[in-house]
User: What shape does this take?
Amino acid sequence: MSVTTEAGTFESLNPATGAVVGTHPIHDEKTVFETVERAQAAARWWAGLGWKERKNRLLRFKGALARNLNRISQVIHEETGKPIGDAVFEAVGAINLLDWAAKNAQKTLGPRSVFPGALSINQKAILEYHPLGVVGVIGPWNYPIYTPMGSLAFSLAAGNAVVFKPSEHTPGVGVLLAELFAEVVPERPVFQVVTGFGATGGALTRAGVNKIAFTGSGPTAKKVMAACAETLTPIVAECGGKDAFIIAADADLEEAAKSALWGAMSNAGQTCVGVERIYVVESVYEEFLGKLSARAEQLKAGYETDGTSFGPITMPGQLDIIERHITDALAAGGRAVVGGAESVRRPFVDPVVLVDVPDTASAICEETFGPTVTVTKVKSLDEAVAKANATEYGLASTVFTSSSKTALDVARRLRSGMTSINAAIAFALIPALPFGGVGESGFGRIHGADGLREFARPKAITRQRFKSALDTTTFTRTQKEIDQIIKLMQFLHGRKK
Ligand code: NAD
Assistant: This one.
C-alpha cells in the first residue's frame, strides 16, 4: 500500500496495520533519464569485466542476500503483509534464481562454434550472445523479490546494467536489493533503483533503455508496449493469469486437495500463477470438494497472529474486484461452500470456495487475485482441457492424475507457459525452466537458458578458413561450378527414400 506525502515523496504502508514502512522519492522524468544515462556507462564497464568476474560478483551478491535473509524478509513482510515464513520462502526462491543465472550465463551465452553446413564447410561459424546494454525492470508487489529477480539476475548475468522500478507498494525491497548489490559492486552504478508510481515506470520506458522487463497487469503491459513502440525498444511482458487445476478420476484426492488449496490461497491468492479455477471429473467431484472444503475451513487470513495462513490483500483496490467476483458468481447462480461475500473483512479476505459458477461469470473469466477458487464438475478430461483453455490468459496450469501418460498428454494440450503434474506451481522453484505466458499472460521468458537469452542479442561471426573449391559467391564463378553445385544438392537432398 502506498500514499503520496509532501511534494516529491511517498510512503509505503503496511497494508495490515497502516503503519509507515518507509518514505521514498517520487523520481521524475529528468532523474530517471539521468539514471539510465549513468547506467549506460556502467553497462559498458560491467560487460567489460567478463564472464568470470561477473559470476564472482553475482555469487557474492547471492551471499549478501543469504546473510541478510532475515532483514529482507522483514521488509517484504511489512510491505506486503504476508506471513514472515512466506517472505522467507520467497526470498529463498530469489536466491535460487540468482545462483542459477550466475553459474549458467557463460555456458549459455558464451562463444561457441556451430556446424557451418556442407555449402560453407570452408567457414568457421561462431555464435555468441552479447549484452543489450541497460535493462529497465518494472516490478509488481505480490512477490517483490522473487518476481523481479527473474529479470534482474538474468539481465545482470548476461552482462547488462539494470535500472529497477519496484512497485509503489513495495519500494523498500527494491532499495535494499540495490544497497546490497552496491556492497559487492561498489565501482559503478550497475544496479540502480528508481522509485515512484506509474509515471516513474513510464519515464523508464522512454529513457533510452535497451529493453524493458515488465511484470504486472495486462492493461499496464499494453501501455508499456505502446510507449516502447516509439523507439522500437523490445519488451518482455509477464502478466496475469487465470490458472486451471485439473483433477482426473484416478488422482490422489487428498494430495490434490492440499496442493490446490496451497495454489489457490497462499499469499492470499495474490499469485500470478495461483490456482483460480478447479475442474474435477464428475466421478470424484463430491469427494474432492469435501476434502478441499474441509481444509479451506481451517485457513484464516490475518497478520502476525497465531495460526494465520495468509496475510491481507496488499493493494486496497483489489478488494473491490475480489468482492465483485464473489457477488457476481452468487448472483449468477453459483454457491459458496466455504465463506461468501462476508469473507471480505477489509483488508483481509478469508477463504472462499465457489461451485456451480457459470462459465461467463467474472470469477471464471477474470483474474481475481484473492483467496477464492471456483470448483467445476466436468464429464471428462477432454472437457476439463477445453474449459481450462477457454480463456485469453495462458500462464500456468496443474493436472493431478496417477497416470504419467495421461498427465503428459493433458499437460501438452493445456495452452499455458508452464504445467505442473501432481504438485501446483512446482516449476517456480526450478530455475533451469523458462517462465512466462501466452496470450494475455504476456510473452517472452524469464528463468532458464531462454531467460538468459531474453536479455542478450545473438551475434553471428564467420571466419573463412580456406578458399572454397566452388567459387560460388563471386562474379568469377563458372557454369561448371554451378553444375557441380546442382550435383551436390541432388546428392545431398534429392535422393528418393
Ligand atoms: P500493475 O500493472 O498495476 O503495476 C506493475 C508495475 O508497473 C508497477 O511498478 C507500476 O508502478 C508500473 N506502472 C504502472 N503504470 C505504468 C506505466 N504507464 N508505464 C510503466 N510502468 C507502469 O501490476 P501490479 O498490480 O503491481 O501487479 C499485479 C499483476 O501482476 C497481476 O496481474 C499479476 O498476475 C501480475 N504478475 C505477473 C507475474 C508473472 O511473472 N507473470 C508475476 C507477478 C505478478
Remarks:
- The chain has a mean pLDDT of 96.
- The first strand starts at residue 2 and ends at 4.
